[in-house]
Amino acid sequence: MPRPAGAFIRKRRQALDIEAKELAPRVGIEPGTLLNIENGHNTASTRLLHRIASELGVEYTELLDDPPTPMRRRKRAPRKKQTPSQKRLAS
């Protein structure tokens, strides 16, 4: 189940005993904006989430609602054997 990024930010900030009015200027926003993000009233840009994560000492992906999953390569369909007439045409 995905969790809101704002709730994680607030929990981590409080665990580090950092006030919103202290963290906000360090990431380049107003304290009210940070509180709105934490309350789910505003969304944060990717760039802002990177700055917040850095200040909170966590990886950026920990703030995401749906962390990215590793990309998987699709399996190729097995090659069909060429008939003798197809082989002649390919030559």
Walk me through what this model shows.
- The chain is 49% helix and 0% strand.
- The model has no long low-confidence stretch (mean pLDDT 82).
- The N and C termini lie far apart (56 Å).
- The protein is an all-alpha fold.
- The chain has a domain at 5-63: 434 Repressor (Amino-terminal Domain), CATH 1.10.260.40.
- The protein has helices spanning 5-15, 20-27, 31-38, 46-56, 84-90.
Which structural class fits the helix and strand makeup?
mainly alpha
Topology as H/E string?
A: HHHHH
Task: Give the low-confidence spans.
Answer: none
Distance between the termini: 56 Å
Q: How many helices in DSSP terms?
A: 5
Mean pLDDT: 82
Q: Beta fraction of the residues?
A: under 5%
State the CATH topology of the domain at 5-63.
434 Repressor (Amino-terminal Domain)
Inertia-based shape: rod-shaped
Largest sheet: none
- CATH-defined superfamily of the domain at 5-63: lambda repressor-like DNA-binding domains
User: CATH top level of the domain at 5-63?
Assistant: Mainly Alpha
Overall number of strands: 0
Task: Note the main attributes of this structure.
single chain, mainly alpha, 434 Repressor (Amino-terminal Domain), 91 residues
SSE order and pairing:
Layout: H1 5-15, H2 20-27, H3 31-38, H4 46-56, H5 84-90
Helix pairs in contact: 1-3, 2-3
Condensed summary:
By secondary structure, this protein is an all-alpha fold.
